[in-house]
Write a structure and sequence with these properties.
The relative contact order is 0.10. Helix content is 50%, strand content 9%. The termini are far apart. An 8-stranded parallel barrel has the order 3-4-5-6-7-8-9-10, surrounded by 7 helices. Strands 1-2 form a two-stranded antiparallel sheet. The protein has 2 domains: 354 residues, Radical SAM ThiC family, central domain (TIM Barrel, Alpha-Beta Barrel); 61 residues, no CATH class.
Length: 428
């Protein structure tokens, strides 16, 4: 192999097999793809050890991608159920899966996920360091953290969330700018605990070059985590969040110098009127690197419906620069999601992503909608169901309430505007 990473290949003008897969899926020219991967505006997460990966691109000019979180915990340690979620997520056309397991045989589960999944896989190694070593957080060593990163890279993980921007300066910002919800990032809180207990700098910040070396060796994309993302609307776009983002921008340039691909992670809970400015600030401070957002969730008062609050924020975010949406389920803030929660979250995220692609005028994005509109004009119910984002639900609704006239539905019946206007204007 004449290249070390996808970014390195693009800088050499080499079209990799993974780039060919992206070109087959997206309406982008080869030259534009090479140029954007070369400068970090598009990433193609593709660990060399993920043998059955069907690679996808994330970034400028491409369709908005969605990620699904899953994994076992101490309270819900059902590996078979989580593997079923993997299969279901793939069937529902998720673009990525993050294994966030925090308990039990994490490595065996992770390897099984990589083995069965053709979509890119992400992890948060700091979770696994706590789960695998079984130590109090304060007693985990720097080598423990980095050995976990290496293990995940060896297992074929395509991108890893690393909260490297939570340095001592950022911690001081938290103390100077009191928040309602403090630190809501699980990985961020673990590292904050470690830093304060040991009176030391964040090891992923202090030894960032060590991280870069591992990721370059396996072509793992670094997803620079937002340890200080706002956990409520009150804390959005505050000094700690922006301070961390400044550091993430600096770390991005260091990774790029070694041809390591980077994604930036973002908020979180953000008021509707601040979503666009958050996207603009990130793109500016992080040099146009692809942006991966959790939501954003645009109100704090809808537990049980946070797939909706997230889809609202996600559509606006992606229409204004976000490239990658992490799904949120109805179970957010309440429990580990079940299969139905996962499906609801995926569909909501896909709706947001597709709506944003239309707003961004991604080539071909409207074709699907135009096909649906044609089927509606033709009163072709079978075609409408086939084209639906969730054909299963569309079919169930149609069959649950059958009209007398099979051309129409039970909403309008004989007063169907489509049938009447088609007869008048088209003579049929």
């Amino acid at each position: 192999m004449s290249y070390s990473t996808q970014m390195n290949a693009a800088q050499k003008g080499t079209v990799t097999p993974q780039m060919k897969q992206v070109l087959a899926q997206e309406k982008i020219s080869e030259s534009e793809l090479l140029q954007k991967v070369a400068v970090g505006r598009i990433v193609i997460p593709a660990n060399r050890n993920h043998e059955n990966l069907s690679a996808k691109g994330v970034g400028a000019g491409l369709t908005t991608k969605i990620n699904v979180n899953l994994g076992v915990s101490e309270d819900c340690c059902n590996i078979d159920m989580e593997l079923e979620k993997v299969r279901k997520a793939i069937a529902l056309k998720a673009d990525a899966i993050m294994d966030l397991s925090t308990f039990g045989g994490t490595r065996d589960f992770r390897r099984r996920v990589v083995e069965i999944s053709p979509v890119m896989i992400g992890t948060v190694p700091v979770y696994d360091a706590v789960a695998s070593y079984g130590k109090d957080v304060s007693r985990i060593t720097v080598d423990d953290f980095f050995n976990t990163v290496l293990m995940h890279a060896e297992d074929g993980v395509d991108f890893m969330t690393i909260h490297a921007g939570l340095n001592r300066v950022a911690v001081e910002r938290i103390r100077q700018s009191p928040r309602l919800t403090h630190v809501v990032s699980r990985g961020g809180s673990i590292l904050l605990d470690w830093m304060e207990s040991n009176n030391r700098e964040n090891p992923f910040y202090e030894y960032f070059d060590r991280l870069i070396e591992i990721c370059r060796d396996f072509d793992v994309t670094i997803s620079l985590g937002d340890a200080l993302r706002p956990g409520c609307l009150n804390d959005a776009t505050d000094a700690p969040q922006i301070q961390e983002l400044i550091v993430l921008g600096e770390l991005t340039k260091r990774a790029w110098e070694s041809q390591v691909q980077v994604i930036i992670e973002g908020p979180g809970h953000v008021p509707l009127n601040e979503v666009v400015s958050n996207m603009q600030i990130q793109k500016k401070l992080c040099h146009g690197a692809p942006f991966y957002v959790l939501g954003p969730i645009v109100t704090d008062v809808a537990p049980g419906y946070d797939h909706i609050t997230s889809a609202i924020g996600g559509a606006i975010a992606a229409a204004n620069g976000a490239d990658f949406l992490c799904y949120v389920t109805p179970a957010e803030h309440l429990r580990l999601p079940d299969l139905q929660d996962m499906k609801d979250g995926i569909i909501a995220a896909r709706i947001a992503a597709h709506a944003a692609d239309i707003a961004k005028a991604i080539p071909g994005a409207m074709d699907w909608d135009n096909a649906m509109s044609t089927a509606r004009k033709d009163l072709d119910w079978q075609k409408m169901i086939e084209l639906a984002m969730d054909p299963e639900k569309a079919k169930a609704y149609r069959e649950s309430s059958k009209p007398i006239d099979q051309d129409v539905c039970t909403m309008c019946g004989d007063l169907c505007a489509v049938k009447r206007s088609r007869r008048i204007l088209e003579g049929r």
